[in-house]
C-alpha cells in the first residue's frame, strides 16, 4: 500500500484495484481511483467557494442551494483540471494481488488553473453569448437559453473565485460593462417572448385517488417580430395548486412546440377548483435564484393553467376515533363514533376504516385518544388519512329523582385535526349535558346521544367551513 507523504502543498489521492489478470486495465482503474479522490476534494472546494461568495453577495444572507445543479457545475469545473493531476507512484502487492496508484497536484498549480479559467471568463461568456445569438436567429430558442445558462454558470464560478463582479465586452470591442446584468436581461427577454397555450385537458372533473381522464395538452411558441415560431425542446414542469397528487415528469416540447402531460393521481384537494400549472423548467439556474431575482420573477409569469373541478368533501380522507366512558367504565364500541361516521358519510366525506391503518396503529390510536395525546394520533395515522376526528365523551349517572326517572350527565371534547400540520380545524366542547331514562343505562345513553348529535352537527359545519 502507498503512504501519502506529509506534503501540505499537495492535493493527494490513492486508488486501489484488484488483480483481474489484465495489468493494464487494473492499473488504469487504480489510477482513476486516485484521480477521483482529488477531484472530489476539488468539487467540495468549488462548491464551498460558490456558497461563501454568494452568501456575502446576497442581501438576505441566504446561501445558494447545494443542489444537483451546483454539484454539476462544480464537477464540470473540477473535471477540467484533471490534466494537471499526475500519477506519481504505483505499487503492486503480490500477496494481496492489489494494484495501488498515488496521484497528486500542487495547490499552486491548481490555483494557477483556476485563476486562468476565471480570468478567461469574459471570453467564455462572449463565446456562449455569440452561440446563443446565432441559435436564436435560427429559431433555436432552447439552444439559445442553454448557452445563456452556460455563460452565467461560468460567470458565477469566476466571480466567486475572483471575489468580485466581472466587467467586460461581450462583443470584444467597445466599453466594458457588468456582464451578469447584461446576460440576465437578455435571458429574461427570451423568457418574456415565450407563450404557453392550452390545447386540451382543461375543465375536467376529478376524483380522489384517480387520475385525470384526459391528458394535458399544450403548446409553447416564441414571439418573433416576424411572427410566432414553435419553441422546440423546452423542458416543461407541472405543478398542482389547491391539490396534491402525482404527475408526469421529464416533459419536453416537440417539433411543433407541443407537449403532453398527465395527472396520474389526485390524492387530496383543498378547494373545489384545482389547477395544474405548466411552466418552464430552468433547474440548472435554481441554485442562483437569489442572484437572478428578475429571471425567476419573469419565469413565474410564463406558463398556462389546466383547471379541474373536484368534490372537496369526497376528496379528503377522515379517520374517526372516540373514547367513550360511562361511570368510569370504558365502552368497547363507542356510540359517538358511529354517529360521527354516519353523519360524515351522509355529507359525502370519505371515512377511513380502522383496517386501512398500518398494522398495530389502531391500538396506538385508541390509547392516544384515551390519553388525549394528539401528537401520537398524528404519528399513527399520517399517510393513511388527511384529517382525524378524535375526542373523549364521558357520562356519569346521577341520583334517582324519586319519581321513577334517573338522570345522567355527559361531557364531550371532540376535535378535527389536520394530519399534515397538526392544527385543530374545528371542535365541539360540551359539559354536563343532561339525559334521563327509566334506569341508569337509559339515562347515560340519552345523555351521550345528545352530546353525539351536537358534536356531529358542529364538526360537519366546521369541516365544511374550513374546506371552503
Structural features, described:
By secondary structure, this protein is of the alpha+beta class. The protein folds into 4 domains: 10-117, no CATH class; 120-191, no CATH class; 194-287 and 300-311, Immunoglobulin-like (Sandwich), CATH 2.60.40.10; 316-467, Rossmann fold (3-Layer(aba) Sandwich). It has helices spanning 23-57, 68-79, 107-119, 121-137, 141-162, 179-192, 293-301, 312-315, 335-346, 361-371, 374-381, 440-467, and strands at residues 10-18, 86-93, 98-106, 167-168, 177-178, 194-200, 204-206, 216-224, 227-230, 235-241, 243-247, 251-252, 258-261, 263-269, 273-280, 303-310, 317-326, 329-330, 350-352, 387-400, 406-418, 424-437. It is 40% helix and 32% strand. Helix 5 runs antiparallel to helix 6 (179-192), helix 6 packs parallel to helix 7 (293-301) and helix 9 (335-346) packs parallel to helix 12. It has 12 helices and 22 strands. The strands form 6 sheets. Strands 17, 18, 19, 20, 21 and 22 form a 6-stranded mixed β-sheet that branches. Strand 8 (216-224) and strand 9 form a beta hairpin.
CATH class of the largest domain: Alpha Beta
Distance between the termini: 70 Å
Radius of gyration: 33 Å
Rounded mean pLDDT is 87
Q: In terms of per-residue confidence, which ranges show pLDDT below 50 for 5 or more consecutive residues?
A: none
Provide the helix percentage: 25-40%
Quickly give the CATH architecture of the largest domain: 3-Layer(aba) Sandwich
- What oligomeric assembly is this protein in? single chain
Shape: elongated
Beta-strand percentage range? 25-35%
Number of domains: 4
The total strand number stands at: 22
Largest sheet: 6 strands, mixed
Helix/strand/pairing category: alpha+beta
Amino acid at each position: 500500500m502507498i503512504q501519502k507523504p506529509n506534503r501540505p502543498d499537495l492535493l493527494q489521492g490513492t486508488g486501489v484495484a484488484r488483480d483481474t489478470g489484465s495489468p493494464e486495465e487494473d492499473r488504469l482503474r487504480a489510477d482513476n481511483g486516485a484521480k477521483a479522490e482529488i477531484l472530489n476534494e476539488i468539487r467540495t472546494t468549488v462548491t464551498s467557494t460558490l456558497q461563501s461568495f454568494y452568501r456575502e453577495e446576497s442581501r438576505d444572507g441566504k446561501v445558494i442551494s447545494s443542489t444537483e445543479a451546483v454539484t454539476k457545475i462544480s464537477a464540470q469545473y473540477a473535471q477540467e483540471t484533471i490534466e494537471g493531476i499526475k500519477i506519481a507512484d504505483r505499487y503492486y502487492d503480490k500477496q494481496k494481488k492489489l494494484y495501488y496508484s498515488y496521484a497528486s497536484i500542487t495547490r499552486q498549480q491548481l490555483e494557477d488553473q483556476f485563476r486562468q479559467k476565471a480570468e478567461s471568463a469574459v471570453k467564455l461568456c462572449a463565446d456562449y453569448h455569440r452561440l446563443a445569438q446565432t441559435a436564436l436567429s435560427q429559431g433555436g430558442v432552447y439552444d439559445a437559453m442553454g448557452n445563456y445558462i452556460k455563460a452565467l454558470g461560468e460567470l458565477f464560478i469566476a466571480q466567486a473565485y475572483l471575489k468580485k463582479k466581472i466587467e467586460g465586452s461581450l462583443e470584444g470591442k467597445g466599453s466594458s460593462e457588468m456582464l451578469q446584468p447584461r446576460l440576465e436581461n437578455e435571458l429574461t427577454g427570451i423568457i418574456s417572448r415565450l407563450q404557453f397555450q392550452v390545447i386540451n385537458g382543461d375543465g375536467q372533473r376529478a376524483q380522489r385517488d384517480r387520475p385525470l381522464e384526459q391528458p394535458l395538452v399544450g403548446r409553447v411558441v416564441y414571439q418573433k417580430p416576424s411572427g410566432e415560431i414553435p419553441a422546440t425542446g423546452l423542458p416543461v414542469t407541472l405543478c398542482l395548486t389547491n391539490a396534491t397528487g402525482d404527475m408526469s415528469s421529464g416533459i419536453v416540447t416537440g417539433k411543433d412546440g407541443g407537449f403532453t402531460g398527465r395527472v396520474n393521481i389526485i390524492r387530496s384537494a383543498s378547494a373545489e377548483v384545482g389547477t395544474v400549472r405548466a411552466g418552464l423548467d430552468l433547474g440548472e439556474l435554481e441554485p442562483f435564484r437569489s442572484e437572478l431575482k428578475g429571471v425567476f420573477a419573469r419565469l413565474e409569469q410564463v406558463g398556462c393553467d389546466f383547471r379541474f373541478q373536484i368534490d372537496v368533501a369526497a376528496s379528503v380522507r377522515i379517520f374517526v376515533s372516540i373514547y367513550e366512558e360511562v361511570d368510569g367504565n370504558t365502552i368497547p364500541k363507542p356510540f359517538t363514533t358511529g354517529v360521527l361516521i354516519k353523519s360524515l358519510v351522509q355529507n359525502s366525506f370519505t371515512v377511513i376504516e380502522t383496517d386501512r391503518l398500518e398494522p398495530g396503529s389502531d391500538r396506538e390510536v385508541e390509547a392516544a385518544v384515551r390519553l388525549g395525546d394528539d401528537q401520537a394520533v398524528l404519528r399513527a395515522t399520517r399517510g393513511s388519512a388527511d384529517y382525524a376526528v378524535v375526542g373523549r365523551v364521558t357520562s356519569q349517572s346521577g341520583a334517582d329523582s324519586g319519581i321513577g326517572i334517573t338522570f345522567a350527565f355527559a361531557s364531550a371534547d371532540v376535535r378535527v385535526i389536520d394530519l399534515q400540520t397538526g392544527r385543530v380545524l374545528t371542535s365541539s366542547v360540551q359539559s354536563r349535558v343532561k339525559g334521563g331514562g327509566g334506569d341508569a343505562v337509559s339515562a347515560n345513553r340519552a345523555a351521550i346521544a345528545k352530546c353525539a348529535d351536537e358534536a356531529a352537527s358542529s364538526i360537519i359545519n366546521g369541516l365544511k367551513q374550513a374546506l371552503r
